[in-house]
Amino acid sequence: MNIVFVHVHVRPEFVDAFKQATIENASNSAKEEGIARFDVIQQTDDATRFILVEVYKTAEASAAHKETAHYLKWRDTVAEMMAEPRQGVKYSNIFPEDSGW
Amino acid sequence: MNIVFVHVHVRPEFVDAFKQATIENASNSAKEEGIARFDVIQQTDDATRFILVEVYKTAEASAAHKETAHYLKWRDTVAEMMAEPRQGVKYSNIFPEDSGW
Question: Which of A35, A62, B23, B65 is the most exposed place for a label (fewest CB within 10 A)?
Fold first, then answer.
């Protein structure tokens, strides 16, 4: 799997709006053929910090996601909400194997 | 869900041994009643960096995990493999809801 953790630091006044926009994006993204999981989590000790856990079946699926209407809407909606530029970090799965995602 | 990301930085000579020990621990942990997922991922641009993505159904499940034989074996086995102390960061799920994990 091609896994990307997108770390997002949101300005405090936008936390609720960010969650709303990001749930909408995630629920649509999770339906994409090339996406195995698209989870969104919030840090317990700092409510302004989120991670989007994006699990792509192929590298092509990652590129295809960035062309979807829901991604483009999310990107533009949350642009003003960021406290700093978001950071993506790439991983591969050690456990479970691809069939477990 | 009670989600913990355990960040592990392994000494380069122990990467393969760490993967072997951690796959064994993860495959047993994933069978625990209180654990929804127990994923292990390796950073693409730095093979010495791993994250254990531990998704517990309850706080009690997290405590119970630390008493299992497979966790205790893993903890002792990997102790000498660490390049620095491992760090745990706690999260809650925004998407999907608990039923989606």
Answer: B23
* Beta carbons of B18 and B79 less than 8 angstroms apart: no
Interface check for B80 against chain A (CB to CB < 8 A): the answer is no
Q: DSSP code of B16?
A: H
Q: What's the predicted TM-score (pTM) here?
A: 0.96
Contacts of A20 in chain B (CB under 8 A): none
Reported as a single tens digit per residue, the pLDDT across B22-77 is: 999 999 999 999 999 999 999 999 999 999 999 999 999 999 999 999 999 999 99
| B55 inside domain | yes
pLDDT, tens digit (0-9, with 9 covering 90-100), for A40-55 = 999 999 999 999 999 9
Q: Do B26 and A91 touch (CB under 8 A)?
A: no
Does residue A101 sit within a domain? no
**Domains: count for chain B:** 1
Side chain identity at A56, as an amino acid letter? Answer: Y
**Category of A53 on φ-ψ map: left (φ > 0), alpha (ψ -120 to 50) or beta:** beta
From A91, which residue of chain B is nearest by alpha-carbon distance? Answer: B43
